[in-house]
Task: structure prediction
Amino acid sequence: MRFTSLDVALEAHADLGEGPWWDEREQHLLWIDLYPGEIHAFDPASGVDTSFSVGQPIGMVAGRAGGGVIAAVRDGLGFADFDTRAFTLEVEVEPGVETNRANDGKCDAAGRLWWGTMAFDQTPGAGAVYSLDAARDLNLRIPHTTTSNGIDWSPDNRLMYHADTATGTISAYDFDLDRGTVTNGRAIFTASLDQGAPDGLTVDESGDIWVAMWDGWAILRLGPEGDLKQVIDVPVARPTSVAFGGEALDELFITTAKYGRTPLQLKDEPHAGSIFRYRAGVAGRAPHPFAG
Result:
C-alpha cells in the first residue's frame, strides 16, 4: 500500500539533514546538518528550532543519560551542551585517517553507542562500525563497510539491523546485548535501482523496520525479515533518516537533504532539506541514551 499524507514539520532548508533523535524528556527532536556540523533541537509544539555548530562535520547525535548529548564527528566522539553551546572531543577515532568521517548511529539498550565511519569519497570498504560503552572502551564491530548508515535493534534485542547505502543493503546480525557483540551478518533487503538506496532507519514497537530511501523519494516499511509492507511517498528525492516522536511516539519524523541536487532539480523540490512528519498509525520506541 502507498500512503502520501504527511506534512512539513520544519522548513529547515538543511544541506544534509540527518540523525533525528527524539528527546522524550524535553519533547523535542534532535537532528543534525552534517557538513556544517550543526546540532539542532526542534520543538514541534512551538515550531522553534535552535542550533549551534561543533566546528567539523558531524555524523550523528544522541542524548546522554546524565544530560547533554554525545556526537560522532569527523575526529571522533565528543560531548555537547545546548546551554553552553560547547563541544568537547573526548575520544579520537581513526586518528590520522583524514579521508574518513563519522556517519549514522544509535545507542543500544545497554547504553552503548554504535556508529559508523566512511570515506568522504565513499571508497569501498574504507569504513567500519564501532561501539563505545560508558567506560569509554572503543571496539571495532563491523569492518570494511562503505557508506555505513541506519542502525537499530529488534524489540527483543536479539537482532541488530544495519544499512550500507553504497551496497543498497540492510543486514541483520545476531546481537548479544550483555556482551555487545554482533555475529552471523546476512542481507535481508537489497534495494532495486528504482527504489533508491537505504539510509537511516528505525524499528517500531512491533519489530517493523522504517527506512529512508536516498534518491528513492520514499520511506519504506519492511517486516523483520525484509519483506516490503508499505511505501510512503515523500516530495523530495533524498530523505535521509527517520525517528518516531510525539507524546505517543506515533509520529514519524523524516529528515531530508538538498545536498547534491542541482538548482534545476530543486525547483521541483521546494521542500528539500525540510523535516517532514508522518502520522504512522503505529508506535515506535523511545531511543536509548548514551550511558556515559
